[in-house]
Each structure stands twice: as structure tokens, then as C-alpha cells.
Amino acid sequence: MESDWYRLLAELMKFQQRVTIVLEVGVLRNKFREADTWAAGFLTLIQWLQGKTCVRVMILTGRPINADDDSIVKRMTVVPVPTKRLSPIATLHLMRSTVGLKSSQAPITEYRGPCLISSILEEQGPPSASEPVTEKSSSTKKVESSKYQYRKDPSREELSDTENIPMCRLTDSLHQSLGADQASASDASKRATGQWFKMLETTTHEFMYKQDLQSEIAVKIAVLDTGFAYTNPEDKRALRPYYQRIKKFANFIEGGSDAEAKMDPAGHGTAVAVQILKISLKAVLYICRVVSPNGGPDKSAIEKAIKKAAAKPDKESPDGGGWGVDIINMSFGWPYHDEGVRKAIDFARQNGVHLFAATSNDGLLGPPNDILYPARSESVIAVDAADGHGEHARSAPSSASQHSQGSRFSAPGLGITSPNRKDIWEGSSFACPIVAGIAALILEFARQPPLNKSPSVQAFLQEMPAMLALLRRASSEKGPDGLKFLTPWRLIGKPGEERLVTALFIVDELRKEYGLEVGREVLQCFKLSEK
């Protein structure tokens, strides 16, 4: 019985002077409705304690629950910033705002919106736009689009010594242990990812670009995300080299303007786009804003963006038709299938567009569908996060997942940086554009001599089995689970290998799937070179 559970918990707690409970219910996902009863449940627990223990409970929800404000239950609404969950330190600082209550019946706080900003961590209110939250001397670690930052406030002396000391000690301890460990882990991840990019530069990039061969047609990639930061002077200075390769900004959120796609307060979309541009040095981007103001992906906007990006240009159409992109990057996901998005994905595949999506960052704690949609779609290539050495991220879904078998890869998704911020990003969101960028490198190489002389190669590279085969060829496996980590220099950029030999390897892979007629023109080039 539920009452027995609370009674047992009360028996365990009644010998403690003070108990703090922080409960994140976001992991319930589709079962979230069950959380509506939790406020009343903890009130039952408090009644069982009969004033013997000071209990403080915080329920982090990320969305509204049915809990009315009163003397015991308090709700807190915070300014939305795109993020998923609270760090331990930020949680404790938020709890400190309730420590001064003298009652044994502490508030149950509802945390609304997937965010935390310093206005709830310090009494003087939110920082102004010219007063950044992040300390300049340190970098901020970001998990997906998460950004939890706070400032110490020496003026907060309203608490009595007996109440302030225990929380201070716990907070300071976490600063010393978690802070040091996280900084060390972030630095190690950043170094490993930096080594991966250095390897890419000295092998694949050297191989691809040393002769300055121009592709006849640039590879076009649509990035569906939060936008691309290019409005303030600091962003413009930092991102100018990348901005030159952006062909279009479009906002697909209902009622929004395209100019909003040049704004990215969260920084998520900018960091994603930069990874693609760092991988493929000739690709051009189409920035699509598809994330609603509340921080969640708008499925209707995603559907429209996919269709616009995948449609062929039509000069006679009033809107000019589509953009005719080659690749679509989707660094987001949700638990369940969406019919509108599915139809848009099918349309894109019919037009030969390759789609990439991030899998998940919930590890084994995710919903029943551990790989999120659209990464779970059979028409989409799924991407997990790993470190720069190929070790699967702890936040990645199970390697034994039945979803996306055969079309799932991993790439560096830890220790990711963007030139306009000091933040360190983590998650499959940032591994996904790296794999999309490698796919762009493959298409770009195919549009240069000698593969550009083969119409059959160009046609078959639009097929998903062809792209999967070449990505596997450009991957390495670490461990017995068969997870494929992208090392593109295994396909393009082998030391001492001639371009023609690499082209023949690609033709050979395509022939395994589509027959011996593929790439005859390339073989003719090889025969001529032997004479």
C-alpha cells in the first residue's frame, strides 16, 4: 500500500534531524502524469514524521504539475533556457533559498521549464544582459543544450549558523569533489576530441584539400536546430569564417521571422553547425530554426523544414521550390513516432537526401524506446556520442538496442567546443553533425576527379545502403559490441594512398551492393594511368 511506503520512509527518517530530498521526475517521460500525486504524497510523509524531522523536498519537473501554492507547497517558475537537468551543485544552491524556513514542514518546490538561471539562486534578481553569469576565468560544461551557472553571493547572511553551516559544508564539498572531477573529465574529453580533429586534419583534410580540387557542386546540408548566432559583434568576430558558408537562414516556427534564425541564445544550433563546417571545409549550410521558444523541438516546424530542404529548386514556383540539399542534420529527438515527420523523412529519402539524428543522452534510464525518434527511423542514420578515443559515452543508449541496427554510428560527442563560447558541450547532439560532416566529405570526394566522371557513382551515392557501406568502411570497432566509431581516414586519407586508389575502393564498395556496372568510367581512368 502507498501509505505503508510513506510510513516506512518516515520510520527511517525520524532519527535524522534534517533530511533534504531532491527528486527529478523528468525520467518518467510518458508516465509523467503519475508525478501529479507526489506533492500530496510527501505531505503525508511529513504528517507521519509529526514534527520530529525537518524535511525539505524539491520536485524538479520541467513542466507544470497540479500542486496549489499554500504555506507548505511553493512553486517556482524560472526563466526557460534550453537544458535538460540540474547539476548537483545548482540543485543545492536552489535548495538554499528554502533553508531559512523555520518549519519542519518544508516546501515542495515545482521546478517549471527545463532550466535554471541565477535569478533563483541569488536574491538581487536575474543578471542583466551585460552581466554574464559565467565567470570569465572558467569554462562551463554543457550536456546537450544544458547550461547551469551560478554566482556566489557573499551578501546572503540571513540564515542562522545552525542552519547555514551544514548546507555550506555539503555545497563546498561538492564544489571540491564534483567540480574537480568534472573539470578533469572535461579537460580529458576535450583533449581526446582535439586529438581526433588533429588526426582528421593531418590525414583526410590533407588528402582532400592539398591539391585544391574544386567540386563541381558544393555539398548542401540543412541544420535543423535552434539557429546560428550572428547578431552581436562578438559572435560575428568569432564565427565570420563559418558564416561565409551559410547560404540561407529560415525560421519554421509559426509566426516567427527568418531573422530569428540568426539568433541563438542557447548556442546549441551554433555549436552543431560549427562541427559540420570543421569536418567538411567546402560544404554549405542552410540554417533552419525548428525549436520553439519553450526550448522543445516543434514537430510541425521540423516537418516543414525537412520538406523545404529536400525539395528540388523550382524557378517557376512562387517560393522558388526547395533547396535541394544532400544532407539533413537533426540533433534532437523525442520518445515516440510522429506521422507528419515520418512522411517528411520519406519525402526526403525519395529525393536522395541522407538524414542523421542524435540517439539519446539518457543511457539506460531513457524511455522504453531507448533510441529517440527520428533517430529510430529506418530511413535515418542514428548517431551516439563517444569520446575522441572511441569509448562510448556513458550517456549513450545500450549497444544492444534493437533500434537502428546496422545504421548506427558513434563519433566524438564529448569535449566539444565552439569558437564563440568558452563552454564545453557534450551529447549525441554534437556527435551527430560530425557524422553528417563525414558523409559530406564522402560526397565531396565523389564530386572531384576521378569519381565525378561516373554518373552511376553519383546516382548510387544518394542511396542509403551506399552511404551506410561507406560509413562502415570509414569506421573502427572498439570492443566486442560492434559499435562503429567514425575514423574517416580509414577511407579517405590513408598515408601514401593515391586518389585513384581511394576512388577504386569506393567503387568496389558500391559494386558489392549495386553490381559490376557501377563506376566503369573510373576503372577506365585506372587502366589509362597504368599505361
TrEMBL record:
GO BP terms in the entry: proteolysis
Composition bias, Polar residues: 396-408
UniProt keywords, alphabetically: Hydrolase, Protease, Serine protease
InterPro entries assigned to the protein according to its UniProt record, in alphabetical order: Peptidase_S8/S53_dom, Peptidase_S8/S53_dom_sf, Peptidase_S8_Asp-AS, Peptidase_S8_subtilisin-like, Peptidase_S8_subtilisin-rel
Active site: 225 (charge relay system), 268 (charge relay system), 429 (charge relay system)
Gene Ontology MF terms in the entry: serine-type endopeptidase activity
Region span, Disordered: 122-167, 387-415
Record's compositionally biased regions (Basic and acidic residues): 141-159
A Pfam family the protein falls into: Peptidase_S8
Xref: PROSITE patterns: SUBTILASE, SUBTILASE_ASP
Stretches assigned to the Peptidase S8/S53 domain: 218-447
Family stated for the protein in its record: Belongs to the peptidase S8 family.
Protein name (database record): Peptidase S8/S53 domain-containing protein
